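Lab notebook page, bench 4
Experiment: in silico fold of construct C2
Operator: M.H.
Input chain length: 56 residues
Purpose: comparison with the prior construct
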Amino acid sequence: MDAHAEDDPQRPSTPYTAYVLWMVFLVMVFNNVDRTILSILVRPIKAEFQLNDTHS
């Protein structure tokens, strides 16, 4: 007996799986871009507000 994704009600469809995979990928990309931008801007922000590492 051949079991296909369309026949199995427990298994999500292929387009839905691809959609979820792309959404997770995009969230991860935006997360990494955000972290990179913040790490690049830390020094200018510190200089602008005259902060150092001991301020809380």
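Observations: The chain has a mean pLDDT of 86. Helices lie at 14-49.
Next step: discuss at group meeting.
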